[in-house]
Amino acid sequence: MPYRWNQTSETEQELRLWPHNSLPPRGAMIVILSVFLFGLIPLLAMLGSVILWGLLPFLLLTVLGLWLAIQTNYRARSAFEVLTLNGSQAKLVHHTPGQGDQEWSCNRYWARPQMHLKGGPVPHYVTLIGDGREVEIGAFLSEDERITLYDDLVEKLRNPAAQ
Questions:
Q1: What is the pLDDT of residues 125-154, one digit of tens each?
Q2: Max intra-chain CA distance, the chain
């Protein structure tokens, strides 16, 4: 589950959410190396020919494009959210790379989670409502994870002693 509850003190809990990482850096290296090696197979027939120098840049551009795409994806997946709940306050910080932090806070008593089964950007869209605003939480999680997150939020916000 790409989120975790931490008890930071006796009266404070912290929820950290992050996008799922299905391709670790080692796997990305293997994919890029495999594409390069399999791309070399057809070029072996062209060894000693001028055509090799015409085809080699296309292979290198393919490998470079793949590497850039994977790096861009890693940067986008470095987004995370932190929900801090203490005795009287609920505070959500959403960090997006290159855009800075977005913060929301309200009195914990008035904060309530809401699930939008349809009509949101994703199915089972989870939001927090309080202080006259509605903010999303966990939009990058899978559908099952958002359902579980909603249940956890309902329990934690209604029962401050729940751990």
A1: 999 999 889 999 998 899 999 999 999 999
A2: 76
SS3 sequence of 79-139: CEEEEEECCCEEEEEEEECCCEEEEEEEECCCCEEEEECCCCCCCCEEEEEECCEEEECCC
* Residue 138, C-beta contacts closer than 8 angstroms, at least 6 positions apart: 3, 17, 81, 126, 145, 146, 149
Nearest to 110 by CA among 91, 126, 90, 130: 130
Q: pTM of the entire structure?
A: 0.77
CATH number of 3-21+80-158: 2.30.29
In terms of C-beta density within 10 A (0-12 exposed, 13-18 middle, 19 or more buried), how is residue 70 classed? middle
